[in-house]
Amino acid sequence: MEAAITKDDSVITAYRAHGWTYIRGVSVLGVLAELTGKSSGCAIGKGGSMHMYCKNFYGGNGIVGAQVPLGAGIAFAIKYRGEPNVCITLYGDGAANQGQVFEAFNMAKLWNLPCIFVCENNGYGMGTSADRASACIDYYTRGDYVPGMRVDGMDVLAVREATKFAKDYVLTNGPILLETATYRYHGHSMSDPGTSYRTREEIQQKREKFDPISTFKQKIVTANLVTADEIKKIEAEVRKEVDEAAERAKTDPEIPLKELYNQIYYQPPKDYHVRGCDITIQAPSS
Amino acid sequence: MNLVQSVNNAMDIALASDPSAVLFGEDVAFGGVFRCSVELRDKYGRDRVFNSPLSEQGIVAFGIGLACAGATAIAEIQFADYIFPAFDQITNEAVKFRYRTGNLFDCGKLTIRTPCGAVGHGALYHSQSPEAFFAHLPGLKVVMPRGPNQAKGLLLSCIRDDNPCVFFEPKILYRSAIEEVPTGDYEIPLSKAEIVQEGNDVTLVGWGTQVHVLLEAAKIAQEKLGVSCEVIDLRTILPWDYNTVSESVCKTGRLMISHEAPITMGFASEVAAFVQNECFLNLEAPIERVCGYDTPFPHMYEAFFIPDKWRCLEGIKKLANY
């Protein structure tokens, strides 16, 4: 998707945001160090896994569905400022059942906002399959008056073309809803093995036949656009970069303790102190 | 049993003894994220134990409707941090139902269960203790157990109580708290605090996980400072047992309340305000509140944020030496 937009377009998504954070411009170290809560993290370690941000990338949101109306708001701001940009607002098949999503659709259509809604349908809302959670699993139709289309989320080129189309569409016609059909290999989180509600065979089959990276790799190698050796070289470089960043993410310093009390308010009232459990601390906040 | 098993057992008994009882929430069918509902679907069927879509407002509102129509509804909100989309339904629909219909209708058969509290790695949205928000709603009962034994009895009381209840389960205790729990059917009365440990010098009030922290601090206080602490578990936060607390403070003259939630407008504020009014002349020292900081629950430095036993001990010291 990033290939079809510019750095002036905005993106907002839910908690599975590490990939987006990287592609929107944060370094590998910025992402990994945020996970470990170090000062080199993109949110100086205060946000963690679910809350990563950078310019024109609004995260990184923990509460499911809450980012969708935010996305509509960002699109409004873009339109208000007269910029030729869009806001891509992503959510999952689980979030598609949240009421606030429909509130956002209504506002976006009513005010013709340049918002590309994207429903990343990976078939499961944590442990509940899409057909057991949604009365209608054609998520691209659930925009009702917001036109929609389904895209093969496992095909890199299809997604890029769809996003290109969507951006052009949205700049003149108002919101659109893309449903990208994709899959989630692992469980929802560390506490979810991912196998109590689906079979290992299903996961394996998806991984072998439909993995976007391997199918794309196969395509470009077969088309002689790149050789297998060049790919190996890229993979080795990437591995090195990630390993180095991981080391630093483990050893970099944490932010100083006083940061715990900062950034609560903007320009807090003079002498504002944060009270809490340590009765000897009345911490100044900024 | 650990806390997970005791909650499971309580729901098992509730579903068995009440044919109208249903359990629903996100992912409860396969057993739930914390395994609190394992085997219940197999035992009672998919029309009594079922998944709901990812929609907290919908879950609670649906539960209110169910309860009004006469079924016993046990709604699970996956984490207390997610309960806020449902806050309007609870505040404006559930708790005012009996009052505004002049007792024609009520949703007393609704119980909302939700895991709460710090767990070490929860960060901003898996660690909150929102009991204070709910304590402001007359008509609602807010309950938090400190262990498996209490949880089973209190949960059964909530389910059978004819008032809408919110039952907070401290998630850190799910596996770590293990006690001998009677396997039969028993209830623990709501709105009755329990004096977990008797003492003479200082009264300590807490609920949920914090009761254990206070007990540890009390032990150190006894050994190192010779201060005898009376530790009270409120158990029911709304309507709370002010009689037990007041009697204790009249005896000791010193009160400390502790909770994980941020200090400003945490429930300790209510307890402190009431007690200073009721027991003013018996107080030997200003009431102490040792609570979380007035910040969002942090990703970093969680250990500094929560009121651990050393901070509580500091509070006890201050009270004792006043």
Describe the structure.
The complex is a heterodimer of chains A (286) and B (322). By secondary structure, chain A is α/β, with parallel strands linked by helices. Helix content of chain A is 38%, strand content 12%. Chain A is built from 9 helices and 9 strands. In chain A, helix 3 packs parallel to helix 4. The radius of gyration of chain A is 21 Å and the shape is globular. Chain A starts with 9 loop residues before the first strand and ends with a strand. Chain B has 322 residues and is of the alpha/beta class. A 7-stranded mixed beta sheet of chain B has the order 2-1-3-4-6-5-10. Chain B has a 5-stranded mixed beta sheet with strand order 7-9-8-11-12, sandwiched between helices. In chain B, helix 1 (3-17) runs parallel beside helix 7 (148-160) and helix 3 (56-68) runs parallel beside helix 4 (87-94). Chain B is globular, with a radius of gyration of 19 Å. Chain B starts with a helix and ends with a helix. The interface between A and B is large, with 44 and 45 residues.
Main sheet of chain A: which strands, in order across? 1-2-3-7-6
In the predicted model, the low-confidence regions of chain B spanning at least 5 consecutive residues are none
The order of strands across the largest sheet of chain B is 2-1-3-4-6-5-10
Question: What is the percentage of strand-forming residues of chain A?
Answer: 5-15%
Supply Rg of chain A.
Answer: 21 Å
CATH architecture of the largest domain in chain B: 3-Layer(aba) Sandwich
Whole-number tally of structural domains of chain B: 2
Radius of gyration of chain B: 19 Å
| CATH domain class name of the largest domain in chain B | Alpha Beta
What is the name of the CATH topology of the largest domain in chain B?
A: Rossmann fold
Topology of chain B as a string of helices (H) and strands (E): HEHEHEHHEHEHEHEEHEEHEHEHH
C-alpha geometry of chain A: globular
